Amino acid sequence: MEKVQSDFSQGSIAKNILRLGIPLTVAQLTVVLYNVVDRAFIGHIPGEGDLAITGIGLAMPITSIITAFANLCGMGGGPLCSMARGEGDDTRAARVMGNAMTMLLAFAGTLTVLFYIFHRPILYLFGASDSTIGYASDYLTIYLAGTVFVMLSLGMNPFINCQGFARTGMMTVLLGAVINLLLDPLFIYAFHMGVKGAALATIIAQGASAAWVTAFLTGKKTLLRLRPEVMRPDWSIVRRISTLGLTGFTFGITNSIVQALGNALLFTYGSLAGGAAMGDLYVGAMTVINSLREVVFQPIRGLTQGSQPIMGYNFGAKKYSRVREAIRYISKICFLYNGTIWLALLAFPQLFILIFNDKPELVTATVPMLRTYFGCYVFMSFQNVGQNTFVALGRSKYAVFFSLLRKVFLVVPFMLLLPRLGGLGVYGVFLAEPLSDLIGGIAAWATMMLTAYRRLDLPDGSPAPW
Question: What's the predicted TM-score (pTM) here?
Answer without folding.
Answer: 0.78
